[in-house]
Amino acid sequence: MRRRGKRIKFTDEQIKELSENPFTSEVTYYQIYYTLEFQNLFLARYEKGESSVEIFESMGYDVSILGDNRVYGFAGRLRRRLESGRELIEVHGNTKLEAPQKTDFNTLPAQQSVASMQRELRYLRQQVEFLKKITELDNDKKPRN
Question: In 10 A of CB 83, how many CB atoms?
């Protein structure tokens, strides 16, 4: 039986099962976050015409645990995220990233250097988005109290 409508809390057993899937980044009682690899694979297959249910099931997810809203709404959420100019990430978009430490990337191994640069880039993009929102508020013509 599939769930419809209101978000239902995952049980501890369901969280354990979802966490074991290699395409799961994180699971909480109410939300699941997917890896960047899953998001990219999903989009590619969805654009070729596969249904959301087919993709989730082929990637090892039990759609009856996830529920219709999570399964059917996933493609739309990804598309809206990309259309708004935001990049796909493994953590929730509202997660606050910590400021990167001052690092000399030349002294790190190549793979670690790239990962550090990507983290710093995500942090800087988050700061730019915040500054854009502040600017939009300042440009608003409504009188301030």
Answer: 8
